[in-house]
Amino acid sequence: MPIRVNLDVMLARRKRKANQLALEIGITEQNLSVLRAGRARAVRFSTLDAICTALACQPGDILEHVPATVPEPDATTDEQEHRDG
Amino acid sequence: MNSLTATRRFSRRLRLLMEALLVLYPLSWLGVWAAYNHLPMAWREAMMRQTAWLPSRLTWDTIGLLYVAGLPRFLVAFGILFCLRRLFRLYEAGNFFELANVVLYRRLGTLFLVGVVASVLSDTLGSVALTLHNPPGQRMLTVGLSSDHLQLLFVGLVAMALGRVMEQGRLLQDDAKLTV
């Protein structure tokens, strides 16, 4: 998933527990667990707003875009092409 | 009462109806032929008008053959009732767009389509059963398609289309479940 959720990091920084946060922002612990585990398919703005308010942070502190990595060319194949000319 | 509760209650009633039919249908199928010779004449005449070559009295041999002839249609109909019972049980439990629902709709569609073949086969075997003891030259084997078969085919195709729609609903539900 190209979007990484760093909610655990923010919870640790703010010294908050997940179940407390869930109660405060009005979502179930199960839903919060889905978000923390990176299994969520979408996040409502209202939820994001509630989390940022509760943890006093920005959306960028919680969500991070991780580009998909391009595989590097195989070194052995390159050497062989160079030898064969 | 919200609409979800009303839907679940209605589904419960339909589930109970299917369970009753699962018992009554086989009993009626077995009973009607076994008791044919003892039925009021008016009932037998009504059945004779609906079924070609049906005499006013049946021998036990012919009754046995009619049971065998009707088996394909009976098994498909029983399967359909069984699927419907499971489907309404899911609705009663509040499961509307699960994978099990999708599978049941597809199965129903398949059963209805197979039912067309089973119905034609049962009618054909029925004509043989009813005329098997006739003198040579008066025995019949008929193969026919009627509007009833076309209706079954139509219902089967609709059920399959509903299965595809339910699959889309399942995907939407999955998305909704994983939306925080």
Q: What is the H/E string of chain B?
A: HHHHH
Share of β-strand residues of chain B: under 5%
Q: What percent strand of chain A?
A: 5-15%
Q: What is the overall shape of chain A? A: elongated
Radius of gyration of chain B: 21 Å
Number of strands of chain B: 0
Query: Percent of residues of chain A in helical segments?
Result: 55-70%
How many helix segments of chain A? 6
- N-end to C-end Cα span of chain A: 41 Å
Which parts of chain B are unreliable, with pLDDT below 50 for 5 consecutive residues or more? none
Biggest sheet architecture of chain B: none
Helix-strand topology string of chain A: EHHHHHEH
Structure, described:
The complex is a heterodimer of chains A (85) and B (180). Chain A has 85 residues and is mostly helical. Chain A is 56% helix and 7% strand. Chain A has six helices and two strands; from the N terminus they run E-H-H-H-H-H-E-H. Chain A has helices spanning 7-13, 18-25, 29-36, 45-55, 59-62, 75-84; strands at 3-5, 63-65. Chain A has a two-stranded antiparallel ribbon with strand order 1-2. In chain A, helix 2 (18-25) crosses helix 3 (29-36). Chain A starts with a strand and ends with a helix. Chain B is built from five helices and no strands. Chain B has helices spanning 3-34, 41-50, 60-92, 99-131, 147-177. Classes of the chains: A mainly alpha (85), B mainly alpha (180).
Main traits of this protein?
heterodimer; A: 85 residues; mainly alpha; two-stranded antiparallel ribbon; 6 helices; 56% helix; 7% strand; B: 180 residues; elongated
